[in-house]
Amino acid sequence: MQEKTLTPQSPVSGTRENSSPGCRVIAVVNQKGGVGKTTTSVNLSACVAVADKPTLLVDLDPQSNATSAFGISADDSALYRSLVLGDPLGREFIQDTEIKRLKIVPSSVDLVGAELELADVDNRTGRLKASLEPYKKYFRYIFVDCPPSLSLLTLNALKAADEILIPIQAEYFALEGLARLIKTVDRVRGSIHPGLRLGGIVLTMYDARTNLSRQVGEDLRSHMPDLVYRVAIPRSVRLAEAPSHGRPIIAYDISSSGAQAYLAMAREFLMRVELKGHE
């Protein structure tokens, strides 16, 4: 996949400078693994990009699954150097994807070490925000795929974000984790980012045929009706296969139920953002 050179001082190749009200940064967060967090980061960002919105995906997870989901090698330590050493995030470090208006900042295993090293640096929760700031005028949306933990990397994402999106599997243990995560968000608001918003909750791996999925969905919507997305992401073999081919689901099989669900979620996401913009 061809890389294109860019710098904070020159327009990002293939994107128009943002003439909209501003870039919004969305952290996709859940401290529980296996809930569809990376799947949502990859596929929602791809679907928003095809809606003609210049979009950047930042893979902040040392497992680098969002990076490999686009067929990109996870051996670039630029994000690590930017976070830990304060190096500028520029030039070839933002890579193209096959989706025209979607670019990605890849991850690498070096981010594992960032957890310990960030503990000893100044402004340790504000490093990602500083790295992304020069590029915000070139993108309408920046999605950050967070690690499955409430770590310093995740705190960096929460400090950089305007709002968070929480994917949650349709099971009862996930509800317990959601309560803990919301408490963490409240603490972040009180300490490092008073303006952080809880943007939405999306049900993943949803099977409408089971009583459990339906009951979890009903419970969530009754307690948080304004936060839970109407669209639920179904269990889908094609959705599970797509990362092994290095493609988002809309490029792998746009007719699949997973692709149609993420396209519908992207429409709902954009509608929600526009409504917030008029509040």
Concise summary:
The protein has about 280 residues and is of the alpha/beta class. The chain has helices at about 35-50, 65-70, 80-85, 110-120, 125-130, 150-160, 170-190, 210-225, 235-240, 250, 255-275, and strands at about 25-30, 55-60, 95, 100-105, 140-145, 165-170, 195-205.
Work out the number of β strands: 7
Strand line-up across the major sheet: 3-4-2-5-1-6-7
Major sheet: size, sense and barrel closure?
A: 7 strands, mixed
Helix content: 25-40%
Mean pLDDT: 88
How far apart the termini lie comes to: 41 Å
From the alpha-carbon coordinates, what is the Rg to the nearest angstrom? 18 Å
Q: Could you spell the SSE succession in H and E letters?
A: EHEHHEEHHEHEHEHHHH
The portion of residues forming beta strands comes to 5-15%
Secondary structure category: alpha/beta
* Large-scale geometry: globular
Could you name the ranges where pLDDT drops below 50 across 5 or more consecutive residues?
1-11
Count of DSSP-assigned helices: 11
